[in-house]
Write a structure and sequence with these properties.
Oligomer: single chain
Shape: globular
Distance between the termini: 25 Å
Radius of gyration: 20 Å
Number of domains: 2
Strand content: 5-15%
Number of strands: 7
Strand order of the largest sheet: 3-4-7-5-6
Largest sheet: 5 strands, mixed
Length: 335
């Protein structure tokens, strides 16, 4: 069975700022080439399509090389080739979370012109803050990616997903705010005075020094091992999704999920409402992403996929898929 994290998708709007940054590096034809080689539709035809982890990884790996900027235009100064390798070399022998974060801050403060990182260590919590040196437009994808990189590196060093208390961003809440839950295992807020990520106290335990071979593997797979988050300790809605995926969504209902979460069905319904969702919406989102994965693999007919995700006919699946994504199933077929 596939990993539920790899199965997850985000809206195409989520990567819109990234594509805007890339368009400053290349012509429209070159950008469409990047997208085509990564399995995306052309930019003009993306609409409200969903984006998979595999597509994000491929686009990152292509764009970082061909733009000769490992942050692909997301910051005012290009981040030259091998910068990520040097960062990993810098942090891989850190023995504690504060030590690793200090090295992370020192590294990026040598490279970024318009922003400065600092650390706020209260003993029980430690916050990595991204402070603007002057008022300027904010690159939302850039802020997300660099904060997520800090979390990914710490999790790599710890050998587990490091707990996060909170994440905040210095921009208004976007229409695609729910996508940030796929990225960060914590509550995410917006319209803050600066962007920041706060780690919890038990992460101050000793970290595991990583070998050169492990470093090279992390680089080769980047950003696969850190861009999406695991679901096991997460907001309630993603814990339910994880349960449905692992236990079989066809047979599991609200009562089963509530039992797994050690709460009453009424309490679970209330918790999901607090996350801005419902049990049925979670199940539909899982079915949507399972269908997208199968469509992109291109090995099964639409009729087969419709049956696998619980529809009695391809026509019913087509209507539901259009409602879920704003696009037809054929849009997700490989070119």
């Amino acid at each position: 069975m596939s990993d539920p994290v790899n199965l997850a998708t985000v809206s195409s709007q989520f990567i819109g700022d990234w594509l805007d940054a890339l368009s400053g590096y290349c012509s429209e034809d070159e950008l469409d080439s990047f997208l085509y080689r990564s399995g995306f539709p052309s930019r003009s035809s993306q609409g409200t399509t969903r984006v998979t982890l595999d597509q994000i990884v491929r686009l990152y790996q292509i764009a970082a090389v061909e733009t000769e900027d490992e942050m692909m235009g997301l910051w005012s100064r290009p981040i030259r080739a091998r910068a990520l390798q040097h960062l990993l070399t810098t942090v891989r022998e850190a023995s504690s979370l504060p030590s690793a974060l200090f090295r992370f801050v020192t590294f990026w403060n040598l490279l970024l012109d318009d922003y400065q990182f600092d650390l706020e260590d209260k003993g029980d919590l430690i916050t990595l803050r991204l402070m603007s040196k002057e008022r300027q437009s904010i690159q939302r994808f850039g802020h997300m990616l660099i904060l997520k990189l800090s979390h990914g590196l710490l999790s790599w060093l710890a050998g587990r997903e490091v707990p996060v208390r909170a994440v905040q961003f210095a921009f208004d809440c976007p229409d695609f705010a729910e996508d940030y839950s796929i990225i960060f295992p914590a509550s995410v807020s917006f319209n803050a005075s600066f962007s920041a990520i706060t780690f919890e106290p038990d992460t101050s335990a000793h970290l595991t020094p990583r070998s050169k071979a492990e470093l090279l593997q992390f680089l080769t797979r980047a950003p696969r091992d850190w861009i999406f988050t695991a679901f096991h300790e997460h907001k309630q809605s993603l814990r339910v999704r994880d349960f449905l995926f692992r236990s079989g969504w066809e047979q599991c209902g609200l009562i089963d999920a509530a039992k797994e979460m050690n709460m009453t069905p009424r309490t679970l319904m209330r918790r999901l409402e607090e996350d801005g969702t419902s049990f049925q919406a979670i199940k539909d989102g899982l079915r949507r992403d399972m269908a997208i994965r199968s469509l992109r693999n291109g090995r099964k007919s639409i009729e087969q996929i419709s049956q696998e995700v619980g529809f009695s006919s391809a026509a019913n699946f087509h209507r539901a898929f259009l409602r879920w994504t704003g696009a037809t199933p054929s849009t997700y077929r490989p070119s």
